[in-house]
Amino acid sequence: MAITAATDRTASRAAQDLLRRRRSRRLRTSALGAAGSALGLLLLAGAGAVQAQRLDFTTYIDVYGIASSNPDLAPKGQEEGDIRLIVSPRFTLTGTVGERFKVSGSGSLGASASLSLREGASFSTYLRPSGALNGTLEVVDNFFYVDVNAGVQSGLDNPFLATTDPYSPVNTSTSYQLGITPYIRGRLFKELDYEVRSANYWTDYAWGGSTNYQGQYSATNSVNIERSPRPLGGAFRFEQQLLSSSAEDQSLLSTETARFSLRYALTTYLAVGARIGAERYNYTLTANDWQRYYGAEMSWRPNERTVLEGYWEDRVFGNSWQLAFNYRRPLMAFNVVSSRLLSNTPQQFLTFPGLNSLASLLNAAFTTRIPDPIERQRAVVDFLSRTQLPAELLAPTIIYSENFTIQELNNASVVYYGQRHSLTFTVWQTITEYSAGISASLPFSNKTKENGTELAFSRRMTPVTTATATASWRYTENMLDTSQNTTQTQLRLEASRTLGRRTDGTLGARYQWISSTVTNDATEAALYFTLTHTLD
C-alpha cells in the first residue's frame, strides 16, 4: 500500500509538471507569434522608404571589473572575496525609419566572467542581458497605429534579500517581455476624441533562482471617448484587464470597468469633474456582478512647463487614486506620482524600470532648449557620459505574483544640472497587497512595503575629469509581521576621466551594509573600474 501511494503521488507530480510545461509552452508560443508579428511590422516599416530613415544608432563596448570582499553577502566571519569581469557590447537607438516608423531603445549583452579566489579556485561565465526596444508604426495616416515592445531586465528574486549590484548573480533573475499594441484614434464631429486600444504582453520569469520559467500573458483592452471641457466636457471609458499564467489550475482572470466623467473648466487652465462607474471581476465572489462606484478628478495646466492632474475613486477594493505632477525649468526637472490601483507583475515590469529614469527627466528638462527629439536624445546621452550619473535611479522591486494585486505607489524625483555641478534625488514607497479576492472587506494574505531613496552629486573637476558621490537606502517590511524587515545602505565614490576621443574610464569604490531579521546581516567593500569605448 505504501508503494502504491508513493507511486500515485509521483504520477500526480509528473502530471502536474506536464500541465505546467504545456501551459508555459502555450504562452511561449503566443509570445513567439507576437515577436513574429512585431518583426513583420519592422520589416514593413523599413521596406518602402529606406532612403528616408533618420536613425541615431551608437554602439559601445563596456568593460567592468570588480574586486569584492563579500560578493555573496555572507555573515561576518564567513566572507570570501572574489573578482568579476564583465565585457558587454551595448547600443542606443533613436529616430525614424521611413515616414511612418519611430523607434528608440538601448541594450546590453552583459557577458560576465567570474574568477573565484576561494579554495578550489574556479572560472565561470554567464550572460545577464538588459535593455528595451520600442517602436511605433503609423499604419494609416493619423488613424491606425501599432506599438511594438521588447524588453529584458534583471530583478531581485526576493525583496527581503539583498544583492551587491545589478551584475551580481546573487538573488537576481532575468525576465523577458514582448508586447504588441494596435490602436486607432481620431476625432468625430470635430469635438469628440476617441481611441480604441488593445495592449498585449507576454512575460517570462525565472524567479527564485529556478530554471523553470513562469510565463504570463496580460492584456488591457480599452475604448475611450472624450470631449475637452469648453467649459463643459466629459468622457466615457470602458476597460478590460486580462491575466493568464502558466500556473496550474488558474483560469483567465478578468477585470472590467466602465466609467463616465463630467468635467467643467473653471478657467482656461483649471478643470474639475465628477465620475460614476461600475466594475466586475470573475475571480472574487464579492464583485462577480456589476458594482457601482463614484469619484472626482481635476486638471491644472497653467503653462507648458507645469502639469498637475489626478483622480480619486471609491472602488470595490477601497480607495483608488492616481496623481501626477510634472514641472521643468531650463536647469532642472521635477516629477511626483502617487497611485493606488490594481496591478500585476507584467505591469510592474513596464512601470518600475522607467519610474526613476534620469534620462526621462533630462529629456523633459532639455525640451525647451532642444526641441528636436533626436538632437535632444544625443544631448541626454552626452550629459550622462560626461557626468557619469546613472541613467536609472533606484527603483522599487518587482514582486512576482500569479494574480492581480493592489499596488500603492508614491514617488518623487528631481534633477538639477549646471556647468560644473549636477544633483539627482529620488524617494519612493510601494505597498503591495494580496488577498483571496479583490475586496476591501477581505483580509490580506500578504502585504509588503518598500521604501527607498537615492542621492547622487556630480562635480566636473576639469574639462575631462568628473567626481561623483552616491548614497542609496532601501527598506523592505512585511506589514502583517513587522518583525520581518531588511535594510540595505550603500555608499559609492567614483572618479571619471575622458581617456580619448571615444573612450571614457571610471575608477570607483563602494561600501554597503545589510541589516535583516529575515536573512543574515552582512557588509561588503569593493573596488571597481569601467571602460567605455564608442565604436562609431
The total number of structural domains is: 1
Level-2 CATH architecture: Beta Barrel
Overall CATH class: Mainly Beta
Q: What is the count of DSSP helices, taking H or I runs of 4+ residues?
A: 4
SSE ordering: HEEEEEEEEEEEEEEEEEHHHEEEEEEE
Work out the radius of gyration.
25 Å
CATH fold name, please? Maltoporin, Chain A
Q: What is the helix fraction of residues, given as a range? A: 10-25%
Descriptive account of the structure:
The protein has one domain (20-534): Maltoporin, Chain A. It is built from four helices and 24 strands. The longest helix has 46 residues, at 2-47. The chain has helices at 2-47, 345-351, 358-365, 373-387, and strands at residues 54-68, 82-97, 101-108, 111-116, 123-127, 130-140, 144-156, 172-188, 192-205, 214-227, 232-245, 253-265, 270-281, 291-303, 306-315, 318-329, 332-343, 405-417, 421-435, 444-462, 465-478, 485-498, 503-516, 522-534. Helices cover 14% and strands 57% of the residues.
